[in-house]
Amino acid sequence: MSLPLPAHRPRRLRRTPALRALTREVTLAPAHLIHPMFVHEQEGDTPVATMPGVMRHSVASAVESARTALALGIRSVILFGIPDAKDALGGGAYDEGGVIQRATRAIKAALPELTVIADTCLCEYTDHGHCGPLCEVAGGQWTVDNDPTLELLARTAVSQARAGADVVAPSAMMDGQVAAIRAGLDAAGFGHVPVMSYAVKYASAYYGPFRDAAGSTPSVGDRASYQMDPAGGYREALREARLDVAEGADYLMVKPALAYLDVLKLLRDEFDLPLVTYNVSGEYALVKAAAQLGFMDERRTVLETLTGMRRAGADAIITYHALDAARWLAESR
């Protein structure tokens, strides 16, 4: 019996690397990556046990890591502070001499062409690990007191802008935080500083290694009363994003990335603002652990994962793989 031959042969366009490159729709380059750094107030660097290859940097070391990123073609870094002292109100976040403020000044002095993004939150600075001052609610439960937190977030953003941050990135998931920060920046003469909103941020188990790195695990309760429910649908995601757009957000972010690529695509189709996603600590740690055990090819896995985030609609990706990915991309040219 003679079978009919295929009329269409898509494999023709996949025969060689050059043919595959000719029809490739999604690009991944170092300029799409944002290099995240933890900065502490101590002199030396310390490794983060749950995130192999990631360090808690001194201010001086953060400058050198930023220099390495820029040399690799990465044009943006995002900074997370780890203060020596913490308090109930997270005062270190808006201290003009705080660790992120000092790191920002140092990086901008050394590398003025690099974009410095400041994470604008209080969780690394509070002694209870939550994203703002706490209040007691019915049943003896504790949660973040939303409206007083807005003032502290605005103060934090202004202090970061004053230190030279090019972008502020509120991640506390407080109602009205973008509007409060935008008003604070404008009133202080920083109307030119954009707001990168963690608009759609889920209460995720994937944040575990970050909390180890930053010492921000909540001492009471959890963040489920203000971060989004992973089982929430598209309506909630769209509502959160639309509110932030209305309040003046310049960028939108989806966090985490891997389990929420459908949400990332949803926002890409709905909004024309620049869209960022965060390839978070747990996603990073999973790949690192599997690679160390010989279960996966780290390079191929990382580049495929980041390409998938770009395909889903991300204009930029915050990733702890940034330096390695940039090196691998340079090698593949």
TrEMBL record:
Upper lineage: Bacteria, Thermotogati, Deinococcota, Deinococci, Deinococcales
Catalytic activity: 2 5-aminolevulinate = porphobilinogen + 2 H2O + H(+)
Pathway(s) the chain acts in: Porphyrin-containing compound metabolism; protoporphyrin-IX biosynthesis; coproporphyrinogen-III from 5-aminolevulinate: step 1/4
Protein origin, superkingdom: Bacteria
Keyword Lyase: yes
Name of the protein: Delta-aminolevulinic acid dehydratase
A GO molecular-function descriptor: porphobilinogen synthase activity
Listed NCBIfam families: PRK09283.1
Species this chain originates from: Deinococcus petrolearius
Keywords assigned: Heme biosynthesis, Lyase, Porphyrin biosynthesis
Gene name per UniProt: hemB
Residues passing through the membrane, by range: none
Subunit note: Homooctamer.
